[in-house]
């Protein structure tokens, strides 16, 4: 089996019948050029993406990721994606991958070539990095100022804060800054003192037995992994809540996690240099659940 | 002559001798694929760019653009570009273009392919759009909240505010919002009430005969066209200044311009729906200067 799959996708209108979608896929070799320099994704980070995990042949939460892709498209005024076409692309890629192991499957919808007639789209699946250490031993985290108030999205929707856009250079710079500070990852905090999100993850705190995550105000992404985990916790009778979380609560929490689609749940062991209790047993249960087939 | 030129560039280290740079250029057809899907420029807007004008065969302010490219690279922790190599690429592209007319020449330095060994780079030159109307008749502008305090860059350098990165999706969204409001362009204002910049331009005001532009605090780009125009004004005995400009001063100004490398000087004729005096004669002098060969 191939360990990487790259499909160029000719996007169908949202309401087009998806009964002959195979003709809209074109498999390419990822080591060969596939995109033109006029691509607005590359010129201006002007497009959106999703990254989902494929675990032992199963694409995790494909529908939740595609619903978020559709939401990002709406925020960015991109043509509404045809979810059936994307589901078919995910199925085709997944069936070409080995039936065991973990893979990262990235979906990209770009505004297309400058002055071009249509968006461009592709899917790229490749082996996931080995996340054994962050899953089992946790991560050190520093907080970094995101510069924006936690209600910025309502005042300035053109900042596209609720969309998962390709304009991620500041997110990558924040991760470099975290590493420079001796940490593994970062939690963005708003200029008015609220917990936001990681550059590529959602934040979950547990205080007095209640699992909390920042309210999806539009200034942060609504995390697919966080939502899946909250549903799982609720089914198990645990209490969960969405609310504005002042930064000071990070230090009061009895456990903190960063959760994301491919690394899954990583417990925080240190926050800005201070130790945080790492709940190894709960983190293992989280990851056992997150590695099980989910839809 | 070709009206578009695309050169893929194998970036040399900053201190490498640039005596055989032609071997580092590979001319391609812009309509053919040239970039891999693993490109971090396209996956994460993770790279930097410059756009300069070529007017009647002359690349305008090439050195100023390359110095800014080098500054952007430093902020983004990209390898320092070899400016001699970039100058050679600009010369090669310029010599291949027609000797009359206006062209936009875009330089891109990307972090490269994910997990790859080196950055990737390219240059793409194409005919400039026809900017006769905005130059001669001006533009309507609305102000839009940038969400950030005007001193955000000092507090949060990981936001990369002083770098011209490829993560421009919010800039493009702000232009769409401006058009939705019946305007042609926008001026970003900081959350604490200061004038910042346009999404692809610098702001210049004239109040009581003094030309002012926001101080380059790091939260905005230092505009190459604005700098060139200020030098020109100073040589002509005019007064110029860099300072923090409260938004309220926009309404007090006797003229406002957005200036950029390819559209050049566009006088503002309306601001948030209120008329602004359009100084047609000065704007024409600005554009006569900006269209003359400049280094």
From TrEMBL, chains A, B:
Root EC class = lyase
Which keywords does the record carry? Answer: Lyase
EC number(s) on file? 4.1.3.38
Q: Which InterPro entries match?
A: Aminotrans_IV, Aminotransferase-like, BCAT-like_C, BCAT-like_N, Class-IV_PLP-Dep_Aminotrnsfr
GO MF, one annotated term: 4-amino-4-deoxychorismate lyase activity
Q: Which family does it belong to?
A: Belongs to the class-IV pyridoxal-phosphate-dependent aminotransferase family.
Name of this chain's protein: Aminodeoxychorismate lyase
What organism is recorded for this protein? Answer: Agromyces lapidis
């Amino acid at each position: 089996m191939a360990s990487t799959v790259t499909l160029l996708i000719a996007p169908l209108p949202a309401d087009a019948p998806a009964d002959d979608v195979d003709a809209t896929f074109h498999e390419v070799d990822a080591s060969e050029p596939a995109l033109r320099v006029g691509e607005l994704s590359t010129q201006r980070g002007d497009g959106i993406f999703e990254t989902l995990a494929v675990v032992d042949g199963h694409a995790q939460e494909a529908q939740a990721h595609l619903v978020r892709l559709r939401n990002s498209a709406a925020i960015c005024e991109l043509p509404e994606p045809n979810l059936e076409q994307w589901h078919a692309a995910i199925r085709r890629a997944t069936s070409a991958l080995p039936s065991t192991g973990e893979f990262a499957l990235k979906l990209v919808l770009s505004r297309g070539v400058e002055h071009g007639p249509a968006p461009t789209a592709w899917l790229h699946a490749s082996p996931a990095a080995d996340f054994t250490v962050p899953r089992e031993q946790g991560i050190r985290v520093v907080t970094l100022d995101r510069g924006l108030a936690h209600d910025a999205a309502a005042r300035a929707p053109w900042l596209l804060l609720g969309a998962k856009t390709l304009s991620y250079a500041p997110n990558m710079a924040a991760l470099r800054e975290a590493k420079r500070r001796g940490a593994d990852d970062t939690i963005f905090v708003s200029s008015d003192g609220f917990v936001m999100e990681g550059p590529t993850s959602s934040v979950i705190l547990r205080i007095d037995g209640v699992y909390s995550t920042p309210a999806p105000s539009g200034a942060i992404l609504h995390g697919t992994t966080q939502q899946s985990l909250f549903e799982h916790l609720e089914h198990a009778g645990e209490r969960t809540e969405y609310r504005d979380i002042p930064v000071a609560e990070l230090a009061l929490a009895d456990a903190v996690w960063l959760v994301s689609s491919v690394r899954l749940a990583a417990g925080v062991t240190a926050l800005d240099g201070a130790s945080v209790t790492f709940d190894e047993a709960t983190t293992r249960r989280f990851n056992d659940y997150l590695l099980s087939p989910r839809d």
